[in-house]
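### Sample
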Amino acid sequence: MKKLLTSGAFLVLLVYLTTACHDINVPVDTELTPDIFPQNSSQFIQASGPPYAALRGNFALDYWFMQSLSSDEAILPARGGNWFDNQNYRMLHYHNWTKDHGWTNGAWSWLSTVIGTSNQALSILNQTIPAATASKPTNLAELKMVRALAYFMMMDLYGNVPIDTTYGDFTPHPNVPRAQVFSFIEKEVKAAMPYLSRVSGQATYGRANKFTGFSLLAKMYLNAEYYTGTQRYNDAIVACDSVISSGLYALEPRTSYLQMFYPNNGPQMKEFIFAIPYDPAAGAMAGTNGMMYHSRYDVPRSETKKFNLPFTPSAPESTLPEYYVNFNDANDIRNGQWLTGLQFMNDGVTPVTVTTTKKGYDQTYTGADGAAAYTYQVNLTPDIVLRQDVATYDCGNDEIAWNMGYRNIKFYPDASSTSRNQNNDVPVFRYSDIILMKAEAILRGGTPTQGQTALSLVNQLRANRTTSAALSSITLEGIYAERCREFAWESWHRNDMIRFGKYEGKWGFKTDADVNHRIFPIPTSAFTVNPALTQNPGY
């Protein structure tokens, strides 16, 4: 079972946290009251659950949709009317979302909840835990890192956002320029860093340590020119070096790269700097597991038996040829995260077959024997064709349509779960990202350090991913392609596309080139709660 903050003590404090702003005169009739709990580091870790539970909630769903379906990494078209879902996925692909777009509203609400829950926990726990407890500064610093990460994701998605760190202050706060939000996050992270733990492994898994802070700073500095107008590549290199010099992390070898994302992953993964743990069994006890549904979205329904799943997946989601073209090295272990072409059972010999009718296989079939039985071997094709209806983003409701698109199974299907939810933990920061961020920062003009060059860093990574010869040179385009191969399905591709100037390009059916669409509109629901907000440009 994964290590989630879901103990009974956490549940009691969760109730306390969610009711603390109500009538303070109601008598307390439980033994676990704020004046006696939490009283030590172990109890405080349990009591820190609500912000982490909130962070876990929508990271692998709403946030993934926003970051991936708005890029050339992934597409989720309708198939015979299934998954049209009020144009939510179509809008992400075409970049014609509005302030009433479902996932735009969902992600804003989720991140606001993470920030609000963090503010609440920081306020209450700062008062209740004894000041003499040696771990108190570390415990509070971790919660500030959760809040900083949420603000980073909100800044990345929405640009100009409000800053509010005071629990109980319901005054409407106007959104402030992105550069100011950037400075706020940077200051928060740097203030927390002296108190964060330097330990990595089981003891701190799923919690923010010092190297989570350095990783977040590196990511901010690498994107600083876009966020603020000022380059910070040397600062990005310094932040990366702080992680590298720690000696706590290492690249997983080629033999275990894919295992990093299996359902039994966890603190034993040498690359995980900060990961969000998922556990359907533990989460069910507290209702806080979040939504981690990649099997449901990515596995073809014809391969339910192959992966021994306890449910039939819907499989509406795939990649686009424009993204998959980066997987052009036959010797690269990262190719193993994809299902492509003719499909076989896990023995590699037995074909995956489906028996349907000729009409069921191809809805355009006009022969008189359309109802005749037809058995075929599943063949996943690379192209997405809106052959039923372009306006409704629909490929059709036959076997040809359901087999369109190569499928990603990086977060390997979890046969142990009795629900659609999975046990696979999701990394936010990995050591390979540190290596590639440093290489990119050097290529963009930063000063090389520790005897490392952009080329040596990229080859260091590739030596653990492919048996092909080392590269003799590296360009920014090469870095971009390497990031596509390394971080598929890990919620970083939109961020990368913007930084590399590719987000306004054409892919799939999308032709929009409006730079205003690098950030999303502030949703209508946010204005209802906070009338002091100002809408982002272009909306």
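Residues 295-408 form one domain. This sample (RagB/SusD family nutrient uptake outer membrane protein) is used throughout the tutorial notebook.
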